[in-house]
Specification:
The complex is a heterodimer of chains A (about 325) and B (about 325). Chain A has about 325 residues and is α/β, with parallel strands linked by helices. Chain A is built from 14 helices and eleven strands. In chain A, strands 2-5-8-1-9 form a five-stranded parallel beta sheet. The longest helix of chain A has 17 residues. Chain A starts with a helix and ends with a helix. Chain B folds into three domains: about 120 residues, Immunoglobulin-like; about 30 residues; about 120 residues. The chains are: A alpha/beta (about 325), B alpha+beta (about 325). The interface between A and B is medium-sized, with 22 and 15 residues.
Amino acid sequence: MDIAELNEKIKHESAFVDLLQNEIGKVIIGQKVMIERLLIGLLGNGHVLLEGVPGLAKTLAIKTLASAMKAKYQRIQFTPDLLPADLVGTMIYNQKDGNFFIRKGPIFANFILADEINRAPAKVQSALLEAMQERQVTIGEETFYLDEPFLVLATQNPIEQEGTYPLPEAQVDRFMLKVKITYPSREEELKIMRQNVNKTEGIVQPVITPQEIIKARGLVQEVYVDEKIEKYILDIVFATRNPKLFGLEKLVDLISYGASPRASINLALGAKAMAFIKRRGYVIPEDVRAICFDVLRHRMAVSYEAEAEEITSENIIEEILNKIEVP
Amino acid sequence: MVKILRVIFCIFIFSFNSFAQQVNARAYTDTTDYLIGDRISYKVEITFPENYIIVPPNFLDSISNVDVWEVKPPVKSSSGGMIISVYEYILSRFDSSDVIIPGYPIRYKKKELPDEQAAPLPAEFLTDSIYQTKVTNSVKFTVHTLRLLKQEDIKDIKEPILIPLDWWIVILFILLVFGILTLAGQIFIYYKYKKKREPSQEIIPKVQVLPHIKALKDLRALEEKHLWQDGEVKQYHSRITEIIRRYFEERYRMPALELSTSEVLNNLKQRSDTEVIRNVTSNFLNNADLVKFAKFNPMPSVNEEMMTQAKEIVKQTEFVPVEDRGGEYENV
């Protein structure tokens, strides 16, 4: 498809993005970045891990997004005594006919909110992450495909680390984005306070169907990524692995391990989704830079030296972005 | 007969007594009460007539209950035909107890008797009839630990002992410092003198090319390459935006090469002196992005317009030096 034609099509088809943002805005004040990243996850067919202190509307945002989409939503509160069967379902014995029947778990929904994912033990996290990757669940001898769109939005609390099971690096890598939620501004908080005290929040209406999202995903796949952009993405990812090659000698001792190929894949996918949200049929470097932190921050680890100097993966990504020339 | 026997007996008795009085050996310590680790001065004093020689006592290997620290050379003196030799041994003990140093035999003989032992040997190796023996007395002393005086108050530890200043060391140190300083001064003077003699190198002032001059030169060079005319449209747009971004880097000290289009435009917005070029730069960079990233194939007039816009951006914002900044500028 010609890019001009694709551009026009995307301009037309992406109209729901504004509608969706408006609907979510009825309930969620501020947190534009978080909402944008949730849409990127939705359109890029990737899962999102939200990290932030309690009370920043993580759960509410996901619930609102599901309500605005006429999609099936399930919330699972992860606790230390949760079992994989509580998540995916199990086989129940029926005493009347003496047979087993399958009871599907809450994972069979379009939107899954895995609240405080780091509170459940590794086997439950593993069951969820396997379902996220394979998009299918096996109960007994039967395999079930999960509904499309299937989006897992997990939350994680960076404080109160006692009694938690931090997600292993290999599993965190399966999340397309890791978004860090910050506090709202003073003005936003005033609005939040008034809205909650006076009970004036609007009612969210469904403005898009899951089928339309699947269609939009098809268009996102068609968004054009030029070779120069591909090279730019690879430069960024490779700079996390071998900073010396890019004139970033000072980062050599600060990086324990660099980003995996999933980072390149998700940077490209995320940039495409970002271009779609911005109603473009092609990716520009700005799209890559916009999502770079969310794609890379959980895919690389800083060394002990960096930790001692309080240097985070975000600082390293910033250094890389400031060094690599934009095409 | 009885008379003869009495005479023989008297001769025997008197001769023995006078012989015994002639050589005497006495062992003693300076005190009988020592603290653990104290130096114990153990002396053996041998008094003998001048016509006698004695074998110096050598019983170090036999002493087992004390440590021998030092053996001092014997001190000899004579008085009234008698020689007094004093042998001193410094001993020590690191355990509290009563100590008894037993008596040791001292061998002696008359000088006129044949010397069958040329070198003095330990007493136990000396045999026989020629040598006589005199045994020293045993010496008893006590080695004890510190006595705790429970009735007295606890006393503070003693102040450190001040070592008296040795002026010789001070003088030596001062002389050493003075010597080092003199040497350093001489080296400094030598190098200064040497430097003076070397022909001075001509300092060539660094020529700085003004950013706008460099950018215009690069744009002219790009124009002469005829890239878009030869079908290298994408290459042309990449190169022309690179020249302008580099110009912004040098002109406004912003990392324009590492920033996206919107970030460059935002940076320009924050500067008041870029107002005249904001719109044209926005068009210029966004059009180039379309060509670079969206397969857009512009008309020839657009390509020409890109060059015109690039030159306009540079000319509108050219930097005029108002003061000398330490270098000379080349006007190309």
